[in-house]
């Protein structure tokens, strides 16, 4: 199996108490996060941002994050390698032992810089700390076999089973993507899901670019937007430009959603609804592009609303942050534009959120789509005649995209889908969109004029973006 270089981003982790068995703080922290995820207690993203990580050194944070995200990305393949070395391959393993084995296997197979002995010894130590002294012998034996035997590279053949094992994705996801987008695109999607996404920023203040460069931050142009940059070296989070909000971290596809919503072709946007606003990156772009507009930003979670208010505090005079369920909007025909970036399965963000592939089940999609239809229908009601709605998801699944659109339009007289082609051209003409990107985006429009960004095809998270107009 080809080994990947250590790859991670700074983040927070939960730490474990030390015991008589010596295990590094980084591995203890990663183990506790992975154990909580395995038991369904929390999400890795939340755990990797916990305050406990402040006690770890920068190298320990880096290693802990690399272990957590790496194990989650490659878990399906790691389990396959581990199971074939067990005396009883179908035996049910305790969660503590399963996680210890996965951590050791990931380090042996994917982290060149870590000696196999260190990976094995500390995985054994984790098993002992968890009270599994007998099973720790099995952990030792399995990992030593894995380190000592040649590891066959999983095939990257044409079958869904080959694709799923080679890129550690559930077979049902691979099957859908092959069926919907073809083998080559499905392979690109899966490969993108195995990499840590690049850090992309938005230059709110164009002058901040030279300031960042002077501080040793390496930047490259974005692939879609003139205001986007990719951070290739350095940490922007401690720079004055970042702390003062003159640059923001945001995926380029996410930025594009808000840009497409904001580029009104023949109307002045005075009242804008952001139906599912948190964490607020798109709201900020709506406000940036429409400085005279009044914006209502809805969020149904109180903690997320508090976070949204803090992020938008400088815009309090023009943005109303409202605790509201987007399906229960009280306004009718009140807004010129609604941005409806609905909660979804997130299958377009597996590189950023690798555990989704382990949590999500095919039967979960219908439950998502019921709420998505309700939110979109409510937003259409809230928009005035002649106004527009931009519907978006970070999902690759038709149930959450085309099928939601079709169902709501069928039930909403006077509402119709409109191609995003003209808005793409307008963004190019206004020097918001890179000219070559405009051509690529037009090629990615669906037959109904919606835009689909596939991970790996575009170097962004996966997005579906559609424009609906409400007849005058």
How many strand segments?
Answer: 12
Number of helices in the DSSP assignment: 19
The CATH architecture assignment of the largest domain turns out to be 3-Layer(aba) Sandwich
Count of all domains: 4
The percent of residues in helical segments reads: 40-55%
**CATH homologous superfamily label of the largest domain:** Vaccinia Virus protein VP39
Instruction: Indicate the low-confidence ranges by residue numbers.
Output: 1-20
CATH class of the largest domain: Alpha Beta
> What name does the CATH topology of the largest domain carry?
Rossmann fold
Please state the CA-atom Rg, rounded to the nearest Å. Answer: 24 Å
End-to-end separation in angstroms reads 60 Å
Tell me, briefly, the overall form.
Answer: globular
- SS-based class: alpha/beta
Biggest sheet character? 8 strands, mixed
Summarize the structure.
The protein is an alpha/beta fold and 472 residues long. Helices cover 44% and strands 14% of the residues.
Describe it.
- This protein is of the alpha/beta class.
- The chain has four domains: 25-148, N-utilizing Substance Protein B Homolog, Chain A (Orthogonal Bundle), CATH 1.10.940.10; 163-193, no CATH class; 199-248, Alpha-Beta Plaits (2-Layer Sandwich), CATH 3.30.70; 252-470, Vaccinia Virus protein VP39 (Rossmann fold).
- The protein has 19 helices and twelve strands.
- It has helices at 25-38, 44-47, 58-83, 95-110, 116-129, 133-148, 160-166, 171-181, 183-193, 208-214, 240-243, 252-262, 281-289, 302-311, 356-359, 365-382, 402-410, 421-429, 435-443, and strands at residues 199-203, 218-221, 228-233, 247-249, 271-274, 294-299, 319-323, 335-341, 383-393, 415-418, 451-453, 463-470.
- The strands form two sheets. Strands 5, 6, 7, 8, 9, 10, 11 and 12 form an eight-stranded mixed sheet that branches.
- A hairpin with a 6-residue loop joins strand 2 (218-221) and strand 3.
- The longest helix has 26 residues, at 58-83.
- The radius of gyration is 24 Å and the shape is globular.
- Mean pLDDT is 92; it is low at 1-20.
